[in-house]
Amino acid sequence: MLSYARHFKAKSRVKNIGPKSTFPSARLPKCPTGIQGLDEITDGGVPRGRPTLVCGGAGCGKTLLAAEFLVRGAAQFGEPGVLMAFEETEAELKANVASLGFDLAGLVRRKKIVVDYVHIEPGEIQENGEYDLEGLFVRLNHAIDSIGAQRVVLDTLEALFAGLRNEAILRAELRRLFRWLKGKGVTAVITAERGREQLTRHGLEEYVSDCVILLDHRVNDQIATRHLRVVKYRGAAHGTNEFPFLIGEEGLSVLPITSLGLNHKISSERIGTGIPRLDAMLGGRGFFRGSSILLTGTAGTGKTIVAANFAHAACQRGERALFFSFEESPNQIIRNMHSIGLRLEPLVKRGLLRFHSARPSLYGLEMHLATMFKEIAEFQPHVVIIDPITSLMDAGTDSETKGMVTRLIDYLKAGLVTSLFTSLTQGGHALQQSEAAMSSLMDSWLLLQDFEGNGERNRVLYVLKARGMAHSNQVREFLISNRGIDLVDAYIGPSGVLTGSARAAQTAREKAEALASQQEAARRKRELERKRAAVEQQISGLRSGYESEAAELRRIAEQVETSTIMLTTERAASGRLRQADAKVATSTRSGSRNGREN
Fold this sequence. Notes:
Blueprint: H1 4-14, E1 30-31, H2 38-41, E2 46-47, E3 51-56, H3 62-76, E4 81-85, H4 90-98, H5 104-109, E5 113-117, H6 134-147, E6 151-155, H7 157-160, H8 167-184, E7 187-193, H9 205-208, E8 211-220, E9 223-233, E10 242-248, E11 251-254, E12 270-271, H10 276-281, E13 287-288, E14 292-297, H11 303-316, E15 321-325, H12 330-337, H13 345-349, E16 353-357, H14 365-379, E17 383-387, H15 398-414, E18 418-424, H16 431-434, H17 436-439, E19 444-453, E20 456-466, E21 476-481, E22 484-489, E23 491-493, E24 496-498, H18 500-597
Helix pairs in contact: 14-15
């Protein structure tokens, strides 16, 4: 956690004015109070060996703060103390401090603390100009020396000086009291009632004190909240803001938002959500362990169902889940989850799942936060669910709620606890704008939204952001049935996003169109096959005719060849016959030629 001293040292390094001092820096000695958060604000505790004034109205916790300072000093730091009370008896103080879990009576028996009740009757005080606190100093000095006390508590100054009407004597004795305590070297806490126009009734105590702590108990919208502010701290840097604090079973607790540093551990391990399609939208592996998740949506969108699945998935992994509910009782949540087939009773019986339900108006934000811290510290969960965080907004202002969520997130991240916050968004508001203040604190943001149309209402889910991981930017329709949760692809077309029956009708139309296209393709294929068969038949006929004509042509050619051969043969035969005639004719022509010669 970031201390204020380191904060101011860092500022001094940035802004260096003037020459560097040659004197060594001496840190003011501090006396730790042991009160959670207060030592952080004061950077170590109240000034050691000096008086600290705790002032405030009735019921703001002055006496309890002083008593815890004394008890923790004796029990934790080995510093004995003296409690001198002027209003409550020793028995009353022991009983009151026991309500915080402190054994004041045991410390008194072991001589670690001395409780001295001094009864002062205002009517017995004589203002004769010689009144002083010498008797008180003797009594207090004896108590301190008897146990070697290092801490002293005086409760309260008003009871001590109630009978004094002389302002001069009162102021003189007040200064003397504070000087005596300083001279004794004890660390003193002195309580005083708050004045109307100043911190204290007498208006002097805050000036002579080295440290002044102001407590306030105010009521806003019928909800009471206590606040603490360090008004003054001589010689030391300190937190000057006003911080809420609470009084619980283990004492006071101050958790200033400004003291929480961003130095928590991180993990690269991913955990499933219990919804497979949602894990697929987150890269198929879910969220980082130790991350903070915001789930927003209007009423009836299924935020609690998603949270219950998240818790169920954690328990299935053998992890512990703590479910804070501010609207439904544990039995009601368990019964309602039966409608989606989710059985949470076995997980509760096995000690893996714990519910804590409370109305937001039961007490203020700080008490809610303290209760959460106590449950988390006791149960040591791996997953924490707050359903819904917006219910606590009515218990404080927006800034107080954001401060509470910041402290809770940092507390969970310090232990690598994964947290899921559901947030109810009012209908008609811009979701991104209405949740901007809280969503900036979260690592991941899921949005459940309604789509109304065609006489019905349907749910969609999408991921607005997921730090450090790839995620889908697509809208998924969010379906809830007796089989659980399913995320289906929404139809996105020229007419926009279609869900529910419109999506089903569009899907049916697309199927019908696809079927018609298949049938048309089949018809065209059959027609083509018919044409192909007809063409093949024509080709076969033409081929048959061609073969017939070719065969006829071959037959004719054979006939022609046969005729030619026969003709040639006949001519040869007739030639041979004509050769015999030729010899006779030759003889005749020879005889005639010889006769003419004779």
